[in-house]
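Hey Z.,

So I finally got round to the zinc ion thing we talked about over coffee. Here's the setup:
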Amino acid sequence: MAATGSVYRNNSNIDSSNNGSSNNNSGSSNTTNYNETKDLPISFSATLTEEALYDPRGLQYVEPTQTSLQCSVCCEYFTEPVSAPCGHTFCRACILQALEVRNGCPLCRTKIDPAMLYEVIALSRICDELLVYCPHKELGCNHTCQRIQIGQHLKDDCVYIGTLCREHHKTCPAESVTCPHCETTRARLRHLEHIKTCPQQIIPCTLSEFGCPWKGPRFDLEAIHIPQCPYEAIRGFLELSKSKMEALEQENQHLRGIFHDLRPQVQQLRDQVGQIQESLQLIAEQEQEQAAGSNINNSGGGISFGTLGGFMDMNYHQYQHRPQFSPRIDRRESYDLVSVNGVDNEMEMERQRASTMNRNNSIGAESMMSSGAGAGGVMTPGNAAEAHELLISENERIRSEIETLTAGLASLELKQNMAIMTESMRIQEEVQSLRAVCHGLRMQMHYLLLEQQNLRHHPGPPPPPGSPAGAVGGNQPGLKGSVNGGPSGDSTANGRSLSVSGPPRPRLSDGLGRQDTKL
Amino acid sequence: MALRRLQAELTDLNRNPLENVSVGPSDDSNILHWKGHILGPSNSPYKGGIFKIDIQFNTDYPFKPPKVKFTTKIYHPNIDEEGAICVALLKNDQWKPATRVNQVLRALVTLLEQPNPEDPLMTDIAEIYVTDQAKFQKTAKDYTKRYASS
Ligand SMILES: [Zn+2]
Ligand SMILES: [Zn+2]
Ligand SMILES: [Zn+2]
Ligand SMILES: [Zn+2]
Ligand SMILES: [Zn+2]
Ligand SMILES: [Zn+2]
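And the result:
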């Protein structure tokens, strides 16, 4: 409390005692500075005020204000400082403004004659050398320089002044630009915002994407066009159908993707079948070779049995591989599962038959060996004939087996092809139905638009859509033409709607009639 | 001019805050209207009270004085019932453009510490202050307790 009190007392001391002490100051500075003022050119501030570009007291300094260099009126660094006879110093503009309100020193209230103010050159120089920012800092000029040079900068260097703009003339944010639409003028910076709302700018209708051909000034859009726009009335429908169309397109894309996924699988299956066919052909050839060579070499027959067994095994493995593919088909084609399983069952049966046959063969070979052993290594004609017969019968059996196998494979291939076909057919159908839906939507839109146009052209009582015209058009095709009389598109659209709405009505009445009779 | 100087003064007040006084613009959009409060000085009957003040500047500030008043009721020979303050440095004809807000605030604190009965606004209070110091102290304390306690 004592502190604040004493500070206050200090202030009052300054206020009261200034007169005495400042008289000395004014005396000395008066004599020294006054001469200098005469010799030296006026400080920069005067030239700046002449340009009237800005209030020089509004300059922004790089360093915070030091109280010793501060004008007590504006609380800024002195600009063109002048001293009053009382010894107090202010900016020239500040003291003149204060004297206008009331004659008296702003600090000590001593009466001041404006003619008695004299410039404080040394102080002026100190303040002129302070670093300041370019007044166009907010526009983007980062220039700093001594305060005395800022006028020169603004005149020659600063690129952020419209009138002095140079290279970046086309993009200068400060340059004034005249709006080409409404012919008002503003800084480019503002113009970019203005153009978004300029009432005179020519813009298309907000529903131009749906086909509205209107174009005009923004002002007219809200005020005149929107209430009249035929598309605005069915805006909800248009947006709905747009979103629907997008959904359909998406679905189409999805289905196309599935189809593409299926294609390599089909190819794979086809390759598999080809391989099986090839291996079967190989078996058949070897069979023939063997049949040809069996008469000459019995032991060769034994080997070929072995190889045949190997082939059978190979085939069996391939059949075992089959289930790797079938589930993929099963997932999509549940109805095909049965038939594929049928094939599998067939194959299983064949495999069993082949294994029994193998067993028979091995038995045959054993018996052959034993008979050979029984003969003591000597081939008797009886034995040979027996073995030959056995071989022939075996061959016969194997051939028939191969035939059934071939048939089975052929049917398998057929079934696979069928499966692929039905799948692609299904996809095609779906695409077709999507296309039909799109077409239907398009027709509906067309019809609605035409109706809108009709309504506009004949503002009188519009023909109620459907019922009366439908009765006329349906019963008397000759009359229908004369009633509609409009463009051909019009009549088809009407005809279409009639043919759609026509049939259900009698059935409905029939139902009602029946109900009546029942009651 | 007024805005820039007030901005400068505000920055200065924030950097060097006054003892027992807090003050600032009532809302950021209007720097011409300040509000604040003064804590009653401990060597006065206003001790323990919080006195709200309202400062309204004009666009011709600092060439014309701001309008300062107490918005808390106070028993003081130089402050009337409306809160108007009689202090030399705020008077139109005695205002000096070089006077800053912190000087005004210091003057107000001093006025609470040392009332000036020679230039009274409330003559009856001034008379009691001069003739019956004990009564003045008591009433001032009562007022403080009743109106200026939080
Ligand atoms: Zn100044
Ligand atoms: Zn003075
Ligand atoms: Zn610049
Ligand atoms: Zn430019
Ligand atoms: Zn415009
Ligand atoms: Zn439109």
